[in-house]
Amino acid sequence: MGYCVLPAAAQDLSPLQLPSLDALPDSLHKRPLTELADIFATDKRASWHNFIELYDRYLTPMQDSIHRVFEIGIFNGASHKMWKCFFDSAEIYGIDIKPKPWVEKLGIHTYIANQAKREDLQQFILESGGEFDVIIDDGGHYMNHQQISLGYLFEHLAPGGLYIIEDVHTSLRTFYNGFGVDSTGSNTTFNMIMQYIRTEKMESNYMTPEEKKYLEQNIEYVELYKRKNSLHSTACVIRKKRKSGTGILREGQ
Ligand SMILES: C[S@@+](CC[C@H](N)C(=O)[O-])C[C@H]1O[C@@H](n2cnc3c(N)ncnc32)[C@H](O)[C@@H]1O
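A: This is the predicted complex of the input protein with S-adenosylmethionine.
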């Protein structure tokens, strides 16, 4: 089940939102995040989930010190174009299950990968070099997607980096169905975060014991963000410690 804002009819889109865009105009570089979110019409914008308020708070003060940004889930490229304009000199990476050649054309590194498959994530990390300052999960929003990606990718976040999971509200089965919440509701990403906040233990059906341990040793803090709107927009920010704990040793490394 997909979970993206349907694009307006092509004639309603601005040239900046169209796949035919050949370059990102210099006039947009370093414009405020809230403006860029509107210009490119990402669903992070103020009139939708308004996660842009959260990003503005965290990322604007770090604008010049962020060099590597990775977002899972490209869709029409809106947020990747926004990051590319905002972080003037950063390398921007994205994965999606579908090819996105019109985004690649703009100097954004795009890869085809399934966030629920460790072998795809491993290949992506090998090719991109990992060590991201920011990782954002705005992909499929299933419970296994969110938890496998967090478990695998947290090690590939630079010390002091930020990992953001969007749309944690897909854990709320009363409002959203079809995102892999089991009959007891105990496997949700929301429960996993709340349990971590309560106990500082990471409990997930989808992570390896090594991944859970690595998270427990390397999380600096967790912030859960919930807006009061009709979408129940919920996101989670996880900051990695500046000084890393023990790394996970994987096969072949
Ligand atoms: C909500 S849209 C991304 C929107 C975009 N980040 C933005 O803010 O403009 C979600 C995207 O995730 C992709 N997706 C769905 N399941 C995925 C998976 N298992 N792995 C990687 N990407 C996935 C979809 O193809 C879709 O393009």
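Residues 18 and 160 are 35 Å apart (CA to CA). The beta strands are 68-72, 91-96, 109-112, 132-137, 157-165, 219-226, 234-240.
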